[in-house]
Amino acid sequence: MTRTAPPLAPRLARGDFVRAPLLANARPDGYKEWYHFLVHQAGWRLLVNLSLTAGADGRLIPRVIVLAEDQRWDGVLQRFDPAELDVSPDLGALVIGRNRMTVGAGGYHLVVDLPDRDIHGELWLAPTDPRYVQITNQPAGSGRMNWLFVPRLSATGRFRIGGREHRLDAAAAYHDHNWGRFRWGDDFGWEWGSVLCGGPDRPCSLVFMRMTDRSRLRTLSQALYVCRPDAPPLLFRDAELRVRGSGLLGGEPDCTLPPPMRLLLGGGAADVPASLEVTARRRGDSVTAVVQPGSFARVAYPSEVDLDRAAVLCEAAGPATVRGVLAGEEIGGDGDGVFEMCHG
């Protein structure tokens, strides 16, 4: 199967390259990097994450995470031997075993092949706008991390998981890329969310982030990016935002990755809200986004600072509603949202 993506500004490929060969080898201690993709299709959501973590010996440990939500979340976290990792000389391709991510001027080509779990897929993800947003040197406990995101892409291809084959034709998608040096379990946490709404003629994408301390009692910074194809991204920051979670989702997570961590964390529900509302106001501009998840999954990492703790990432998704007025023009509509809560 062959797909051709419309040509986009080449700076996308120049900006979203793999950093590990340049940065991790200089000082590998605590280095982490991952490419993260979300695909939204009616009644189905897909999360794919290709990550690198520097081990105690300085070698990079590759992992592939796949999570899909089809009424319930299910997926896999698979660790690979460092010998199965390869990065292309131009830093535009990341290969982990039989899995590959390539970034070029036309977008991203993603191949996932985990035969032991009968998970296979090939996707072409073309940004609907060549611009991206990059945030550098964001504090994460005693460390730092960098974040680049492409707010909206069009995904085409196929993906098999859970015994079902999914065909995608211009499905809405999101991508981000993170890299830096920090330790799981250090004194930090985050909340992040992506909302895709509006039709093909008036698409609107919102990206939310909030950095906190580990207990999530103190907010260090927060921001909401509103992205439309006909305007530069609009940024709301800190005091311009109000974030409110209502109720608790309740019940146990659909799955915990890797599965042995469920024994350590227990089966009880995490503090995932039943509804998350983000409101931004500045002068005559205002935006409100509400996401109401139906279930959640957990990804857990052993703490790197405390043997008795773990860092837990809760992934939740559900229908979303966006309403707002920017420069006198109404924006928004119904759509789909995913949010992630990191604590530990």
Describe the fold and architecture:
The strands form two sheets. Strands 1, 2, 3, 4, 5, 6, 7, 8, 9, 10, 11 and 12 form a twelve-stranded antiparallel beta sheet that branches. The longest helix has 5 residues, at 11-15. A hairpin with a 2-residue loop joins strand 6 (93-96) and strand 7. The chain has two domains: 1-182, AttH-like fold (Beta Barrel), CATH 2.40.370; 183-344, AttH-like fold. Helices cover 4% and strands 62% of the residues. The model has no long low-confidence stretch (mean pLDDT 91). It has three helices and 23 strands. The protein is mostly beta strands.
* Overall helicity: under 10%
The CATH architecture name of the largest domain reads Beta Barrel
Work out the radius of gyration.
19 Å
Largest sheet: 12 strands, antiparallel
CATH C-level of the largest domain: Mainly Beta
Report, as a whole number of angstroms, the end-to-end distance. 43 Å
The low-pLDDT segments are none
How many discrete structural domains?
Answer: 2
Assign the CATH topology of the largest domain: AttH-like fold
CATH superfamily of the largest domain: AttH-like domain
Tell me the overall shape.
globular
Round the mean pLDDT to the nearest integer and report it: 91
The count of β-strands is 23
Task: Throw out a few tags for this protein.
mainly beta; 4% helix; AttH-like fold; 3 helices; globular; 12-stranded antiparallel beta sheet; 344 residues
